[in-house]
Amino acid sequence: MAARVLVSDDLSPEAVAVLKQAGLEVDVKVGLKPDALEAIIGDYDALAVRSATKVTAKLLEKASRLRVIGRAGVGVDNVDLDAATRRGVVVMNTPGGSSVTVAELALAMILALSRHVPAATASVKAGKWEKKRFQGHELAGKTLGVVGIGNIGSVLVDRALAMKMRVVAYDPFISAEAAAKLGVERVELDALWAQADVVSLHVPLTEQTRNLVDAKVLARMKKGALLVNCARGGIVDERALADALASGHLGGAALDVFEQEPPPADHPLLGLDGFVATPHIGASTEEAQSAVAVAVAEQLAAYLNHGVVKNAVNVPGLPREIMDQIAPFLPLCEKLGSLAAQLAPQGPSEVTVEVAGELAAAPIRPLAARTLAAFLRHHLETPVNDVSAPAVAKERGIAVREVRSAEPHDYASLVTVTVRGQGGEAHVAGTVYGKREARLVRVDGFRLEAVPEGHVILCENDDAPGVVGNLGTALGAAGVNIARISLSRLDDHSRAFAFLNVDSAPAPGVLEQVRRLPHVRTVRSIHL
Ligand SMILES: NC(=O)C1=CN([C@@H]2O[C@H](COP(=O)(O)OP(=O)(O)OC[C@H]3O[C@@H](n4cnc5c(N)ncnc54)[C@H](O)[C@@H]3O)[C@@H](O)[C@H]2O)C=CC1
Ligand SMILES: O=C(O)C(=O)COP(=O)(O)O
């Protein structure tokens, strides 16, 4: 059955075409009330949104089939990321697609403010001719302070330099060299507020940036300075901004985004001269909307059809060539996680995934996540997948260690899973022959070569003659067909081990019979 995608915001129609082309079923239902969306979300594997749809924890609770949310745009503050991650839902955005468009709006705001374009337009339309009132300032030679020089901030820097402005920037996550390459001087925030004739904000809304521009900061800005926010409502304290504008300390302010959208009619900024506003249209050009819609559709299709994660904000993404490298090992990790769970001691407290040999050059995180998800599924009723597994393990106090070792051991690549718990440890290891043949090569101290699949009987016994014959006879008499058998013993011959792939699960009585056979120490039946 084709996966189903719900488009719940006003995306460019190109998105639908791309999704359908990829063989997906698409419904477009824009502007649904939360209740209506909650009522239908359970039918969909994927959700495509802009900023209008609020993807709350409550909505996600109803989204039993949902695997991925695609945001056609940048900011994902309308999505409850923690809730999505806990439920194993990948959240993707489309960085870069709208950068030029948003930077151009910021530049438009700066020009509009410095030359009073909106107020002068209103004045002319009112039949006035107020040349003196609308005398402005040149931008050339002035200092622009950019807070956040990521995708959008750096495009604005480029445009501002072309306007012959000097640009200073604050971004703690960009090196001084990278900033210098852009042609900006990296400064601390205090210096930025003090030096800038124009400040433009291009940071996400986070705990660190909420109310970043408050009354204190506004007071530190130069008299007559201009402030532009085309990033997110909540980064600027709007009441304090209204005071700074009304007092004449700021020369002008422009907002594309508000704490509450749309702002209430009695919002203190709306009646002020020198205030310019647009209704969150930063990304609203034909070019940007086409780019982000196509990007989100392609990303959703790549995930739903091939498991390829691109531009995810809550899980690490992998390029296709890396995905191709690790893909053959993911089913092995699933089997190792499942086997480790069935052999694990009570109260597991730590799961270690060690990758050795050629595979150690690839990222371990996705392999560890797959192992952990399979491990946790054996212990929990709630669904767990690769996305939610790390968060679920953390919630349950299970530490996860990822270890990389270049040592090839006896195999080109080897994945070893160790579980520690109250009652001791369990170790299992496996490899992949060619691109498809997963092999289990170690169970605790025993070396073997077994196919980790289907119904399995594990039998530990004394290293004595006749055990395997007895086992075969007992199982044969019970109608349990042995498909494959892999034998092993410890180097000191103190114990031996048999891994039997069988065509059906043995009844409990049959296992009990096997357990009573001479020299048999333990026997258990598992399913992989
Ligand atoms: N008005 C609109 O319609 C649109 C608004 N946006 C907003 O613009 C923001 C920026 O978008 P992009 O440039 O594409 O994102 P980006 O992730 O490329 O850049 C954000 C930059 O902010 C920096 N940063 C993060 N925390 C910071 C802090 N506390 N102080 C200083 N710098 C910090 C990061 O290091 C990064 O370089 C988005 O988060 C979104 O909220 C984006 C698109 C459209
Ligand atoms: O991409 C972003 O972060 C935006 O703010 C654009 O929002 P929108 O898609 O126009 O609702």
TrEMBL record:
Enzyme Commission designation: 1.1.1.95
Catalytic reaction(s) noted: (R)-2-hydroxyglutarate + NAD(+) = 2-oxoglutarate + NADH + H(+); (2R)-3-phosphoglycerate + NAD(+) = 3-phosphooxypyruvate + NADH + H(+)
Keyword field contains NAD: yes
EC supergroup of this enzyme: oxidoreductase
Gene3D superfamilies named among the record's database cross-references: 3.30.70.260, D-3-phosphoglycerate dehydrogenase, domain 3 (3.30.1330.90), NAD(P)-binding Rossmann-like Domain (3.40.50.720)
SUPFAM superfamilies associated with the record: ACT-like, Formate/glycerate dehydrogenase catalytic domain-like, NAD(P)-binding Rossmann-fold domains, Serine metabolism enzymes domain
Family annotation (InterPro entries): ACT-like_dom_sf, ACT_dom, ASB_dom_sf, D-2-hydroxyacid_DH, D-isomer_2_OHA_DH_cat_dom, D-isomer_DH_CS, D-isomer_DH_CS1, D-isomer_DH_NAD-bd
Biological process terms in GO annotation: L-serine biosynthetic process
Chain ranges of the ACT domain: 456-528
A molecular function (GO) term: phosphoglycerate dehydrogenase activity
Pathway the protein contributes to: Amino-acid biosynthesis; L-serine biosynthesis; L-serine from 3-phospho-D-glycerate: step 1/3
Tree of life domain: Bacteria
Keywords carried by this UniProt record: Amino-acid biosynthesis, NAD, Oxidoreductase, Serine biosynthesis
Known role: Catalyzes the reversible oxidation of 3-phospho-D-glycerate to 3-phosphonooxypyruvate, the first step of the phosphorylated L-serine biosynthesis pathway. Also catalyzes the reversible oxidation of 2-hydroxyglutarate to 2-oxoglutarate.
UniProt record similarity statement: Belongs to the D-isomer specific 2-hydroxyacid dehydrogenase family.
UniProt name for this protein: D-3-phosphoglycerate dehydrogenase
Taxonomic lineage of the native organism: Bacteria, Pseudomonadati, Myxococcota, Myxococcia, Myxococcales
